[in-house]
Automatic annotation (TrEMBL):
Source organism phylogeny: Bacteria, Bacillati, Actinomycetota, Actinomycetes, Mycobacteriales
Pathway membership, UniProt: Steroid metabolism; cholesterol degradation
CDD domains registered for this protein in UniProt: CYP142-like
Protein name: Steroid C26-monooxygenase
Biological process terms in GO annotation: cholesterol catabolic process
Keyword Heme: yes
Highest taxon in the source lineage: Bacteria
Entry keyword Heme: yes
Family classification: Belongs to the cytochrome P450 family.
Length: 416
């Protein structure tokens, strides 16, 4: 692995193509952790930001949620896209999800959906998730002996789960699938609807029109599902605004889908590339809990979130001025040599495993228990039935600074 220069290393974080090249990305992150863990990145078309690459610093920033705010820049996008999102919000039709909000409003809005992700709700959902896991492993057997595991299996299973939780009809699944991909794979040419921010915004408007109709129907006829909880949710006794309601569906549908797909397919690739670990897990299914956690660390589907300083402050002694933004490099935190023994080793028994793939603090992933359960069900169904598996072509990563992972994983296998 060649050593990048300091400037190159920092710029890599603001270059979507770097996320499609693991070697290049990790070489840069390793360099930053060792030599410049609070690095100023100035790489147009992005506005400048401070890249935070040490696990300890990311946790400290997320813990200080009254000093480091999600508003107005919760994630990395180009200056043009930042401006457009702001203008849309001011016009009353932008996106303001949980990840855009700060306390105390954030806490109240989060509480509306939270019951649907608690252990009791997860236990109630488990039968359905197990059933879906079996359905997808059966499908994999039926379409074998080769498939693209990402597009034919990993993408559909979590979408089905999240749509079931929301209570949406099966005939809408295809539409939701392409919308979430267009929305989250925004930087990658394969998923883009168009090249301009306006065309990207059209994706959002499609989401909004679909979910506005849903809100109206669930307000008129509430049912026992998450969509009804959102449609009828209140903050301080008032119903959620139209923007907040539509945004809630958007965050659940989109955050619950691509992220889990990336962790499932990244996890399978790690098992294929580490056959000893795959055998270890097959021999001892009791390791499934730690194995799933390791797959989530290894794949780190959410590459970053950002926070903006509410006051002048410092991180690791580096001054950060009020209004400047910090980029929380989860991919880097999850390979931090100070936290993980041999961070570049995939270990299905890794314990402890303090990865930051689900973030930390008040914004900690609402769907973490659901994602873990889905992965547990799928791999518990798949592994005992898998007689052989190998790559049938090169795996391909998506080019995105936000949520991403494998977009193609061609495999050849024998499945009972
Ligand atoms: C392996 C799969 C997943 C990963 C890696 C992941 C990762 C994350 C991360 C990093 C955050 C932000 C945390 C922070 O800022 O500290 C987040 C927030 C969130 N996630 Fe997930 N997520 C996954 C699956 C899911 C699922 C299945 C759902 C279900 C709907 C979900 C719903 C959410 C929501 C609603 C938030 C916003 C929470 C808030 O801001 O209060 N996620 N997720």
């Amino acid at each position: 692995m060649s050593t990048p220069t300091m400037d190159d290393a920092a710029k890599v974080l603001a270059d979507p193509t770097a996320y499609a090249d693991d070697q290049r990305l990790h070489a840069a992150l390793r360099h930053l952790r060792a030599h410049n863990p609070v690095a100023l990145v100035d790489n147009p078309p992005y506005r400048p930001f401070w890249a935070i690459t040490k696990h300890e610093d990311i946790m400290a920033i997320e813990r200080a949620n009254d000093l480091f705010l999600s508003e107005p820049r919760p994630l990395l996008s180009t200056a043009q896209a930042d401006d457009l999102a702001k203008a849309q919000l001011e016009a009353g039709m932008g996106l303001r999800t949980l990840i855009h909000m700060d306390d105390p409003h954030h806490r109240k809005v989060r509480a509306i959906g939270a019951d649907w992700f608690r252990p009791k709700a997860m236990r109630d959902l488990k039968v359905r998730v197990d059933e879906l896991a079996k359905r997808y492993v059966d499908r994999m057997r039926d379409i074998g002996p080769e498939c693209d595991f990402v597009t034919e299996i990993a993408v559909n299973f979590p979408l089905y789960v999240i749509m079931s939780l929301l209570g949406l009809p099966e005939e809408d699944f295809g539409r939701m699938h392409s919308l979430t991909q267009e929305m989250f794979g925004g930087d990658d040419d394969e998923y883009k609807r168009g090249t301009t921010p306006e065309e990207q915004m059209a994706v959002l408007l499609d989401f909004f029109s679909y979910f506005s109709a849903l809100t109206a129907s669930r307000r008129a006829n509430p049912t026992d599902d998450l969509a009804s909880a959102i449609a009828n949710g209140t903050v301080d006794g008032e119903p959620l605004s139209d923007v907040d309601t539509a945004s809630y569906y958007v965050i659940v549908a989109s955050a619950g889908h691509d992220t889990t797909k990336d962790a499932i397919s990244g996890g399978l690739l790690a098992l294929i590339e580490n056959p000893g670990e795959m055998q270890r897990l097959k021999d001892d299914p009791g390791l499934m809990g730690t194995a799933v956690e390791e797959m989530i660390r290894w794949s780190t589907p959410v590459k970053e979130f950002m926070r903006t300083a509410a006051e002048d402050t410092t991180v690791r002694g580096v001054p950060i001025a009020k209004g400047e933004s910090v980029y929380l490099a989860y991919v880097s935190a999850n390979r931090d040599e100070d936290i993980f023994d041999e961070p570049f080793r995939f270990d299905v028994g890794r314990d402890p495993n303090k990865h930051l793939s689900f973030g930390y603090g008040v914004h900690f992933c609402l769907g973490a228990a659901l994602a873990r359960m889905e992965m547990n069900s799928l791999f518990t169904e798949l592994l005992p039935r898998l007689e052989s598996i190998e790559l049938a072509g090169p795996p391909e990563l998506s080019a995105t600074t936000f949520v991403g992972g494998l977009k193609h994983l061609p495999i050849r296998y024998q499945l009972r």
